[in-house]
Amino acid sequence: GGARGLCLPRERAGERDVVRRVVAALEEPRTAGSATAAVRRLADSAVPLVAAALARGGAKRPTLVRAAANAATEHGLAVIEPALRDRDRVVVLAALEALDAAHAAGVVPPDVLDGVFGDAAAHASRTLAARAALAGSDLPLRRALEDERDLARRLVIAVLALRHGDRVRDAVRVVDAAEGQRRALGVEALDVLLSREEATIALPLVRRDLTPEEQAAALRHVVPAERGLGEW
Question: Which of 62, 111, 117, 227 is buried most, with the most CB atoms less than 10 Å from its CB?
């Protein structure tokens, strides 16, 4: 059915075939908007199927991730956890940002955020080391490494925003947009907000005025995650 089929009377909300159709519609751009509203009405009935859709690879669909984040505010970590543990860091980032938008920071246990933060730091360290070592290489390769560095940067910021609130994003915006003394104030604000361990990772990544070589040197202490050569 199309979007019209998603306007469901409350008494049918428990029917499993209807729930399946709604969750499937989350993965189709044409029906995603209506399906998101329907998921809110279906409440408990939709949670297991939303989590299952994420686990089987539906996490690539932003609307499904957002629906899971909204459901997590009432139903806890289980519904969004498959996206947070996805091997694709872009999916993990989408889940973090969706949780932030849903004001669901309290849903994610500290150890899960620690794992994402540690993986992002290690990814940034290895990417920056490669970028510094390949300074004379072809432009597409350098750009690819810079894209990976930026992904790690966004993951670190997303974790810190969930931990510390909007002040982190506000300070990052100042660092990104300002120059001179105002930029320095943004860096100082981050330094005050974050723990010493967080700051040693976040500040070199956030500061775009540093060269890749300077960023690589600042993150040299980070121990890379145990990933195989093929994964890296």
Answer: 117
Measured from the Cβ of residue 133, the count of other Cβ atoms closer than 10 Å reads 13
Tokens at 61, concatenated = 């669909």
pTM over 0.85: no
Is residue 41 exposed (0-12), middle (13-18) or buried (19+ Cβ within 10 Å)?
A: middle
On whether the CB atoms of residues 91 and 121 are closer than 8 A, the answer is no
The pLDDT tens digits of the residues spanning 179-200 come to 888 888 888 988 899 999 999 9
CA distance 141 to 212: 14
Main-chain phi, psi angles of 203, to 5 degrees: -65, -45
- 122: closest CA among 48, 221, 56? 221
For position 180, what pLDDT does the model report?
82
| Cα-based distances in Å from 162 to 47, 107, 116, 151, 221 | 22, 10, 12, 17, 25
Residue-wise burial string across 97-124, b where 16 or more C-beta atoms lie within 10 A, e elsewhere: bbbbebebeebbeeeebebbbbbbbbbb
Q: Is 154 within 8 Å of 93 (Cβ atoms)? A: yes
Residue 88 to residue 58: CA distance in whole angstroms? 12
CA distance 3 to 127: 43
